[in-house]
């Protein structure tokens, strides 16, 4: 089980005490919902798959999401079994409690897995995807759903998954088509 670090709680309370306001509440709830079940990334993947010239990217995004789900949500969350920050807190939550464990952040890992994949194929759009991924990841801190290390771990895992999948694609599949 991952320990609760008091420094991490201080960061979360700092966000609550200094950034929380009506506009941000709405904005970060909206962003968090976009990241639920990877819905925004699935929609973007389908968009890319609908264009012949971007079909490979769309497929690679879906593969990254599936790989991320298996590693982050099915394996690591259950292995580390880290409780969410709100478990021992009286913070008023803006979204419903989640029954899953906290480490790693699935929102962060899926968002960064897909953003990295987009970046491999389309650098300019990939940079925008990283901005969206970062905002979605931060929303989970703002909403008191994850500790900072859950987010950092999720980012690292997502990028590593994308790197691995792209490596396989580039080494074995992409070489055959060129």
Give a quick precis of the structure:
With 178 residues, this protein is mostly helical.
Descriptive report:
The chain is an all-alpha fold. 74% of the residues lie in helices and 0% in strands. It contains seven helices and no strands. It has helices spanning 6-18, 22-35, 39-50, 55-80, 106-121, 123-142, 148-177. It is globular, with a radius of gyration of 17 Å.
Topology:
Layout (H helix, E strand, L loop, with lengths): L5 H13 L3 H14 L3 H12 L4 H26 L25 H16 L1 H20 L5 H30 L1
Helix pairs in contact: 2-6, 3-4, 4-5, 4-7, 5-6, 5-7
What are its keywords?
mainly alpha
Q: Give the fraction of residues assigned to helices.
A: over 70%
Shape: globular
For the report, how would you describe the main beta sheet? Answer: none
Beta-strand residue percentage: under 5%
Q: What integer is the average pLDDT?
A: 91
Tell me the total number of β-strands: 0
Number of helices: 7
How far the N terminus sits from the C terminus, by CA atoms, comes to 47 Å
Radius of gyration: 17 Å
Order of H and E elements: HHHHHHH
């Amino acid at each position: 089980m991952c320990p609760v670090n008091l420094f991490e709680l201080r960061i979360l309370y700092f966000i609550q005490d200094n950034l929380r306001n009506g506009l941000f509440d709405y904005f970060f709830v909206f962003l968090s919902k976009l990241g639920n079940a990877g819905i925004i990334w699935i929609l973007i993947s389908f968009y890319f798959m609908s264009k012949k010239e971007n079909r490979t990217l769309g497929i690679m995004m879906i593969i990254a999401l599936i790989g991320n789900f298996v590693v982050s949500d099915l394996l690591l969350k259950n292995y580390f079994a880290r409780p969410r920050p709100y478990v021992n807190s009286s913070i008023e939550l803006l979204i419903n409690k989640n029954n899953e464990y906290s480490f790693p952040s699935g929102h962060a890992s899926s968002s960064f897995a897909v953003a990295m994949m987009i970046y491999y194929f389309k650098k300019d759009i990939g940079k925008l995807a990283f901005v969206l991924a970062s905002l979605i990841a931060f929303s989970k801190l703002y909403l008191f759903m994850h500790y900072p290390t859950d987010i950092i771990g999720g980012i690292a895992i997502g990028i590593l998954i994308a790197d691995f999948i792209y490596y396989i694609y580039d080494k074995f599949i992409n070489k055959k088509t060129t």
